[in-house]
Design a protein that fits this description.
The structure holds 3 protein chains of 3 kinds. By secondary structure, chain B is mostly helical. Chain B is about 65% helix and about 0% strand. The longest helix of chain B has 29 residues. The chains are: A alpha+beta, B mainly alpha, C mainly alpha. The complex binds fe (ii) ion (FE2) (3 copies).
Chain lengths: ~120, ~325, ~250
Amino acid sequence: MIKSLDPRITRAEIELNNSIAPLEENDQWETYEVFHQKKRGDQHMHVGIVHAANPDMALLFAKEQYGRRGQSVNIWVVKTREVYTTDYEDSDIFDTVPEKMFREAGGYKVMEKINKYKKEHKI
Amino acid sequence: MYGNAYIDPNEKANSIVAGEDPEKLAEFEARISKGEKIEPKDWMPKEYRKQLIRMIEQHAHSEIIGALPEGTWITRAPGFQRKLALMAKVQDEVGHAQLLYSAAETLGKSREAMINDLITGKSKYSNVFNYPAFEWADACIIAWLIDAGAIINQVANAKGSYGPYCRALDRICTEESFHLKYGHDAVVTLATGTPYQRKMVQDALTRWWPPIMHFFGPSDKISQHTEILMKWKVKMASNDDMRQQYLNMYVPKIWDLGLTLPDPNLKKNEETGKWDYTEPDWEEFKRVINGDGPCNAERLAVRRNAEERGRWVREALKTADTKYIVPLA
Amino acid sequence: MNTPAIKELLYKMADDLLIIGHRHSEWTGLGPILEEDISFSSMAQDKIGQSQALFQLLHQLGEPDADTNAFTRNANQFYNAQFAELPNEEYDFSTVRHFLYDHADQLRFEMLAHSSYEPLAKLARKVKGELKYHVFHANTWMVKLAQGTEESKARMQTALSNAWNYALGMFEESKFEKELIAAKIFEGEAALKTKWIQAITPFIEKAGLKLPPEKEWNPVYGGRKNFHTEHLDPLVKEMGEVFRVEPASQW
Ligand SMILES: [Fe+2]
Ligand SMILES: [Fe+2]
Ligand SMILES: [Fe+2]
């Protein structure tokens, strides 16, 4: 029996050479991805995971693991296995995006045209 | 040893990457040298995965085992402020274990498998937590000076190449700044307190100094393996560099309190700009790592006991449709 | 203002929270799974923090400062219900106590949010959110563990049966009951107990658990009058062990 410096351990009456069966598969349940919103108006941000046995507990756990400091107003959890993702291997599908200036506000330079016209016509 | 890659100095570079697709390897290394992060489902060399799992897992174990020496004083912390702060600090360490196990899981090792390797002694954790916290002051020294070491290690590793580990460490480092402040405050309070308190903190410091000098591990042997792990940004700083950084930051603060350190050779060498010290006893370090420290057996027995007491609880909540998959990020 | 009556009310609440928070903290680092370890520790911190706030109110009424009051009294000077001091045992009893106590605590503070004693009303409004989380947590765990395996169901039923009479002891009346009610400081233990039974019953039913038959209810009183089980003395000595070495010093 362990006589520990920690009175909690001494009270638990633990054998020093105890042995236990290994943890089995799913012993730690499954994982939920956690999304945290700091304040109203902000996006929810992915902050990590919790292991939980059901959604209610996932929310209880997420609140403490990811919301015990700083500001929070809202948390979402979703089972990891229910999240669909693109592959990093396919990140080339985004490759030509920066060239597509016709989608960007910065692709339209009206002031240049106006100024040129004003200059030419002395307005 | 806190969260450092294990390096076999005799291994040859070509054997480390043997069998890897050269094109993919080149792409992988180019990404890292550009400063980009590797994400869980990216292609990675087997050795990279293996070292990261080992390193992150050991770091996670260090957090959960690290909750025990300080936990020794959780029911006896003097006064509301200390009681609350110590509870919050130990809670954070449990939280760090959770974050780090999660990061390691993304590499394909389940939390169950990691816990099993911990409680059977197959997997290591930081040596310092195999030392006892005899008095209240020991818990204060741990909070200040062990966490200070952890921060140096964690800040370095947070610049590594593996995305999930870096993200976990960023979160952890924010909390560590509370640990450091709390620990410093607790030590300063004792050092500036009554003669009894001052003696208690000096005794604790004297006890903890050898394990603190062991904290970053022995000097790295220069090997091809080390070089590769540094190139891959798995190992971020040499053990000696981290130890020097630590001494530089904390020895003056300790001396500032009029406390003494049990090493007559400890001083800053004005010529080299580095700290001289008596070489730590690396034989003892090895002995403790291999299980023969003052608290190794107790720490693992306590973890086994905690897992066992929790088993019926976890079993009761498990549902028929529970289906674990590797977390995303 | 009826100071002795208010003090007695504050003492029993402060001591309940301190002792039960201390018991909860014994799980920190040793809980059944990492995530729950963290959650349970937060609730322990909330309780001890609330206790500290109550001791500060007592200090304002002329009692010793919070640390001295909490860390240097002897067991026979404590006002907590005996329910709070019982050892944690396993997670079954810990969860059942958390469920039974936190419902009572939440309702007590809800009542006190309208207390004519404004400092306490203010505190009650401030901790509302903490208590709401505690009760969410307790309800979920109580029901899920009771609905789990054969083993967990049996454990939860045993724990509930063992806890019950101690839990009823939380509502031991004070000699100031009438004054507190008349002065609109607190609606009284009897009213609280009625609300509490109403609050917990649906969850106990949902969990599929059974309360002992009413004729067997036999509240364990005494705590409010400084009578305690053999478990409180070692707890209090342990809690104050370091502080008492230099009680006048800062720690
Ligand atoms: Fe940590
Ligand atoms: Fe750490
Ligand atoms: Fe820490």
